[in-house]
Sequence to fold (102 residues):
Amino acid sequence: MSTTECGTEIKLVHQPAVETRLGSVMQLVILRGKSAWRAIRNRLASNALNDLDDYQLDDIGLSRRDVTQALDRSGVLQDPSLLLSKAARERARYRFARRAGH
Fold:
């Protein structure tokens, strides 16, 4: 078998362009669905942080204000955990900088 024959076999194996576009659309729909589900799941978990007391929130590097702001600033299908992790990082950076400056 020559290289030319191999090249034509590869072309015959590929799906038609219509099926490829349909597959891409389906992948996009599935990806968006997964993203929306992840955002809802993380919103529910972030909402559960309201049940913790202030000492427990402080242990994970958050304040009640951080939780409230993250839930208020993000929409229903947006992920508030991104805002919460940013707040926890900022708080940790401030704490460690303050301790190092003693």
